[in-house]
Amino acid sequence: MTAPSMRGAAPDCAAARAAAATVNAANNDTRTGALWHRLLSFMTRDDTTGAGVSVRTRFAPSPTGYLHIGGVRTALFNWLFARRHGGQFILRIDDTDRQRNLEEALQPILDGFRWLGLDWDEGPEVEGPHAPYFQSACHARHREAVERLLAGGHAYRDYATAGEIQAEREASQRDKVRFIYSRRWMAETPAQAAAFEAEGRTAVVRLKMPRDGVCAFDDLVRGPVEFEWALEQDHVVQRADGTCLYHLASAVDDHHFRITHVIRAVEHLSNTPRQIFIARGLGYELPAYAHLPYVAEPGGAEKLSKRKLDTYLQHPDFRKLHEHGARIMEAQGKPVGSASFNPLVVAFYRAVGYRPEALLNYLLLLGWSLDDRTEMFTTAEMIERFTLERVNKSAASFDPPKLLAFEERYMQRLPLAARAAAAVPFLRRNGALPESPSPADLDRVSLVVGAAGERLKVAGDILNYLEFFRPDDAFPYDEKAFTKRIRAAGAADRLGRFRTVLETVDPFDAATLHDVMQRFIAAEEIAIGRIIHAVRVAVTGKAVGFGLFEGLEILGREACLARIDRALARLGAETECA
RNA sequence: GUCCCCAUCGUCCAGAGGCCUAGGAUCUAGCCCUUUCAAGGCUAAGACACGGGUUCGAAUCCCGUUGGGGACGCCA
Q: What was the pLDDT predicted at A27?
């Protein structure tokens, strides 16, 4: 028996589908995507409350060792949809190719999810009623499915060699038609199989795709979609050695895990007919499908690929993002050449000190929006407001400056104590703070973080202010600034006179220091610029920084005097030599 | 090559035939403030890909063109 031609969608899916089809028939002149969307999302909502059918979504990473930024966006939408409907979010590991170090390849992915706060109801480590959650542990289930497909006439054993298939494929190319297998080496009876085997051939199992009709289904993002069955290939679902291929495993496992909504990237859209064919052949109820647009490369339209890091580094915005991170890593003595130090991978943002909620918020808006102005979403708000109907159809390119803008906003709304706490680990890794910082150390961090204000965009930016955590005689000078501000004629003498003033300032706080400075320039009859920069370079070694008087106050009188002395001594040594 | 999809400022989004002189964010530029700065404030510039329809009226609906992208594995 051959598979039924499926004109007019899968009859066994949700009521939503049937209802939508009715509406379509009644409105065949105005079947707008919007109408569909409203209806489908309404029905979806209804499913969860009415029938008590729990929404179950899944994200199925293969254990590669990295959590890709585009993958996280897909995972986020799955997670939000499940949470929005009070359902479950499942993590399934697609490791059909046996991994050598599964543990090693999986842990960074789970860490990434945990860091972002995307919790899973079933999956690795938390387990659940449908365990195991590793595809490689489900071979028996997959093989049994193949047997049923074979028995039902939805698949056949094929004895063609790779070379023979290749020849047919090339012939199709020449004729400029889509490759469709001739089924010349198809064996549907034991006798045929025996004949081929007598020739020494071995068999794979192929899907016996319909050769007429269309596969129609309603995508929750894209609306009604149709594919001609005749253009689908007889895909291989099982190799000669008995191992099963991805699409078979995926359809079978989605059913096994009771997935109700398959939400994944568009590149799977054209794979959907074969999965529907498998699912129907096995008598499954079909899940609803939602195909998300992919995340495109910075400044481009192509799909973001983590292998193209070098190309993206040519893009100025992306390079800035990378360099910013690299400075922070280097200040911690960490290598920047490693594969995970890559802005296409979630671990990068954690390592540099981004807020996970900022990344999430940015990713949320990459392909989805609530309206024309709401941009900031707490996790609770995302869950409350997220709908698939408002997901965009077109690809969105990854824009580093905008991500940073969100990061800044999130950092700024954090209370001072939280920002300081986030900065501490960076200082510790740099060695600027001991393993167990004293209360005084922590006060100092808090003061610097407060003074730095909006200059502290990511937690790792604290490493721009290391001079506040170094001994008075052990921070470097910006040579250019030193020359301009201290080696300049008369600068050292003025600095010396200001030093004398500092000896008696009381109290030694920013406001008083500011007054003292004003009186000093009045007495000297100079513009403030003639002295303030010299003080900044002497005390911090740098030409730029946050408010100077706050800086002086944080350092305290003794440190300021010692630092000015050190700068003057340095200059003195130079002139003696000359 | 075949099939499918997409199309509003540089980028991310809003837009459901009249609320559009197209809105917000980001980026960019200018000005202001300031001791510096990747700080802050204010202002500005910047888009409906093109061509046909339908309609009293189109960014919005239809067709075509162009452009971009994806899928075409015994990968996942």
A: 31
Residue closest to sugar C1' of B34 by CA = A547
The strand B neighbours among A residues 304-343, by Cβ under 7 Å, are 320, 324, 327
| Residue A229 Cβ under 7 A from any strand B atom | no
Q: Which amino acid is at A398?
A: F
Which residue blocks in A85-209 are alpha helix, DSSP H? 102-116, 139-151, 162-175, 190-198
**pLDDT tens for each residue of A470-485:** 999 999 999 989 998 9
- The overall average pLDDT reported for chain A is 87
Beta bridge partners of A500: none
| Cα–Cα distance, A259 to A250 (Å, whole number) | 11
Is-catalytic flag, A208?
Answer: no
With bands split at pLDDT 50, 70 and 90, how would you rate the model's confidence at A578? low
Please state the rounded mean pLDDT for residues A36-58. Answer: 55
Determine what percent of chain A is predicted with pLDDT higher than 70.
89
CB A133 within 8 A of CB A92: yes
Q: Which residues pair with A238 in a beta bridge?
A: A205, A244
Q: Is the CB of A103 under 7 A from strand B?
A: no
Instruction: Determine contact, residues A435/A428, Cβ cutoff 8 Å.
Output: yes
**From the C1' of B67, which residue's alpha carbon is nearest?**
A301
DSSP state of A489: T
> What's the CA–C1' distance between A479 and B70, in Å?
53
The ipTM value here is 0.94
Q: Give the pLDDT band (50/70/90) at residue A576.
A: low
- Selected catalytic residue, list A303, A306, A393, A484: A306
DSSP string, A158-181: E---HHHHHHHHHHHHHHTS----
Residue range A407-453, pLDDT digits in tens: 999 999 999 999 999 999 999 999 999 999 999 999 999 999 999 99
* Residue A411: both structure tokens together: 């950092």
Q: What is the pTM of this model?
A: 0.90
Half-sphere exposure of residue A214, counting CA atoms within 13 Å on the CB side?
Answer: 11
Strand B at less than 7 A from CB of A217: no
CA atoms within 13 A on the CB side of A204: 17
Q: A41, A11, A37, A36: which is closest to A25 by C-alpha?
A: A36
